Amino acid sequence: MKKLLLLILTLSLLLTCSPMAYTAGATGVQQPKHLLVLGDSIAAHFGVADGAGYDTHLTQLLQGTGERWNSTNWGVSGYTSEDLVTHLSRKAEEADGRATLEAADLICISIGGNNLLRLLGSHGLDSLDGNGEIPWSKLAQIFTEGSDSVCTELKEDLGAIMRLIRKYNPDATVLVQNIHNVARDFEGGISLFGKPLSVAALADRFFDPILRVIDEGAAEYGYHVADTYGAFSRSAERPLLRRELIHPNEAGHRLIAGVLFDKYTEARLPITQKSEANI
User: Fold this and answer.
1) Which of 276, 241, 7 lies closest to 113, judged by CA?
2) What number is the average pLDDT over the span 258-263?
């Protein structure tokens, strides 16, 4: 009888102390983690079939680590940063939306592009495409005169977005994508104000203020920047954009997913490993 009691006690201790008891819960099944995607038409994978957007590709990459993941996409085409603040506020007032926000382990945000497009629309340039002549001189003037107001708005809204997220979820990893390089599929150079200039150099001039705002907000508001702009600029794969030269095609979405996955992996490293990785 004593031997039987000792055997039962030993088995109980082994089951209690096993890693599965701590990580998998009472059912013995690992609880899934949750990805929440927020933002504009890029987040909503405009022009790309369901299942081909970066949220799907990112979920697959995350599951490849051996963890279980599911995802929710709150992307809405046309959203500016102000729209996203309003959208998040409304979601947080709803029980289901608040529960989704609270449960998220990783939150990815794509925002800011429509802030720039709205600036163009206010000057009569509602859309750009690769088929017609693009008024580069006018574009340069518009961005030079209007970038300050766009940057101020974006910075304030990023702060509001992060305060809303942290109110309901203080622990999720938050990644903010900077604006991808829409000039990378243009061929050749241009003449601006009588000077030869590559399209890539012109794009840098347009987007630098926005990129700086997103970078500065990372330190101030506590998110991580996923450098999709740099990834699009460096990639040799063509094309990465649809014909209107704004929205990514499926290859572009795969690239975005890879950038987000790498940044999330880096963000989860212990501080000592991050330091070693940057040496």
Assistant:
1) 241
2) 98
- Residues 230-241: tens digit of each pLDDT: 999 889 898 998
Give the structural domain span for 150.
Answer: 32-269
Find the mean pLDDT for residues 23-43. Answer: 81
Residue ranges of E strands in the chain: 33-39, 69-75, 106-110, 173-177, 189-192, 195-198, 224-226
Residues 111/39, Cβ–Cβ less than 8 Å: yes
Do 7 and 40 lie in one domain? The reply is no
- Please check whether residues 8 and 124 belong to one and the same domain: no
Could you report the per-residue pLDDT of 96-131, keeping only the tens digit for each?
A: 999 999 999 999 999 998 988 787 666 665 555 444
> Do 2 and 139 belong together in one domain?
no
Two structure tokens written together for 184: 């990378």
Residues 54, 75 contacting (CB under 8 angstroms): no
What is the C-alpha separation between 201 and 49, in angstroms, rounded? 32
Q: Quote the pLDDT of residue 45.
A: 95
DSSP assignment of 99-131: HHHHH-SEEEEE-SHHHHHHHHHTTT-----SS
d(CA 48, CA 33): 25
Q: Provide the token pair at 137.
A: 């001189």
Tell me the pTM: 0.81
Q: Which H helix or E strand runs over 273?
A: helix 271-277
Could you give the CA distance from residue 87 to residue 97 in angstroms, rounded to a whole number?
10
17-21 long-range CB contacts below 8 Å, 24 or more apart?
Answer: none
Whether residues 16 and 104 fall in one domain: no
Same domain, yes or no: 56 and 171 = yes
Read off the pLDDT of residues 202-213 as tens digits, 9 standing for 90 and up. Answer: 677 778 888 999
